[in-house]
Amino acid sequence: MNLSLTRRHWLVTALAAAMSFAPNAPAAEDSRVFEMRIYVTNEGKLPDLLARFRDHTVRLFEKHGIENIGYWVPVEKSEGADNTLVYVIAHKSRAGADAAWAEFRNDPDWKAAAKASEANGKILAQKPEAFFLSATDYSAAIRPGKGAGERVFELRTYITPEGKLDALNKRFRDHTVGLFARHGMTHIAYWTPLAGEPNASTKLVYILSHASKEAGLKSFDAFRKDPEWIKAKAESEKDGSLTVQPDGVKSLYMKATDFSPIR
């Protein structure tokens, strides 16, 4: 037996296996269209909304070809813990999204569930906010499932000056995502809006997870003090900040619902 050839075969096999289980591996050209939706309820109606999703909506989404990705409520009361649901679903295409929503809204089971859930009053306080997104080329591959122990999620939204989104994505691709991992943050996904969506040329949306809100704040503090980050930030901003000042970066800490595929 050729021991050298056998050893080479073993090394290749081991490397392939290691790569297949590598955490936060980039998505392999994820062509799905993602949709983020934010619902704000009337006072006291969030439990009714969550029950409707748990008992009916998520199942009916799947029935009509809509993929459930994640469902969250804010951690802090001041940010909507009592009245807000944030969720992400996926479609095969933008046209497919329109067709799936039309089928869903016309489904007799959905109409019956919606009517029953609002027997004691209207659930939503306002029209849902919704926008369509595509995964960046450095986005983590989205893997539904429960993390190790309890964790919180952080939704972050960046708005750039016009013409700066490519530079921001380059900084994330070349530096930021690696440094996030170094400081204990877990990547969930990174997206930019589809063409034609509001802020399509100036917006980056992503979700991280942390062991707790306190852990997330601590990780970001260490990240901002990292010499490699300080250098990368300075080099990328020689011609000005990559985010609109002072409100170009927003953060929302969230916890997953009990019916969320990602928990």
What is the general shape?
A: globular
The first-to-last residue Cα distance is 49 Å
For the biggest β-sheet, the strand order reads 1-3-2-8-5-7-6-4
Q: Which CATH architecture of the largest domain would you pick?
A: 2-Layer Sandwich
Describe the structure in your own words.
By secondary structure, this protein is an alpha+beta fold. It folds into 2 domains: 33-132, Alpha-Beta Plaits (2-Layer Sandwich), CATH 3.30.70.100; 138-256, Alpha-Beta Plaits (2-Layer Sandwich), CATH 3.30.70.100. It is 38% helix and 24% strand. It is built from 7 helices and 8 strands. The protein has an 8-stranded antiparallel β-barrel with strand order 1-3-2-8-5-7-6-4, surrounded by 4 helices. Helix 2 (46-63) packs antiparallel against helix 4 and helix 5 packs antiparallel against helix 7 (227-236). The radius of gyration is 21 Å and the shape is globular.
Which secondary structure elements does this structure contain, and how are they paired or packed?
Blueprint: H1 3-20, E1 33-40, H2 46-63, E2 67-74, E3 84-91, H3 94-105, H4 108-117, E4 129-135, E5 152-159, H5 165-182, E6 186-193, E7 203-210, H6 213-225, H7 227-236, E8 249-256
Antiparallel strand pairs: 1-3, 1-4, 2-3, 2-8, 4-6, 5-7, 5-8, 6-7
Helix pairs in contact: 2-4, 5-7
Summarize the structure in short.
The chain has 263 residues and is α+β, with helices and mostly antiparallel strands.
